Amino acid sequence: MRITKEDLPACNHHSDCFANREGKCITLTDTSFKRGYCPFYKTEKQLNAERKQDKKIKTR
């Protein structure tokens, strides 16, 4: 089953989040957070740095 853009939850917590596409979250199914902020937030730069680090660890 393919999810359409309309089905994605709205997210206006962080416009620079790696998962934010035109105000919609492409990662989570619910963006209502009890503490008021997204615990999964990271920028594209942070995500790429983590992926790079993970690759280094796996290739050892």
Query: How far apart are the first and last residues' alpha carbons, in Å?
Result: 38 Å
**How are the strands of the largest sheet arranged?**
1-2
| Low-confidence segments | none
Count the beta strands: 2
What fraction strand?
5-15%
Instruction: State the secondary-structure class.
Output: alpha+beta
Question: What does the radius of gyration come to?
Answer: 14 Å
Helix and strand pattern: EEH
Summarize the structure.
This protein has 60 residues and is an alpha+beta fold. The protein has one helix and two strands, in the order E-E-H.
Descriptive terms for the model:
60 residues; two-stranded antiparallel sheet; alpha+beta; 2 strands
Which secondary structure elements does this structure contain, and how are they paired or packed?
Layout: E1 20-21, E2 24-25, H1 44-58
Antiparallel strand pairs: 1-2
Q: How would you describe this protein?
A:
By secondary structure, the chain is of the alpha+beta class. The protein has one domain (5-58). It contains one helix and two strands. It has a two-stranded antiparallel sheet with strand order 1-2. Strand 1 (20-21) and strand 2 form a beta hairpin. The mean pLDDT is 89.
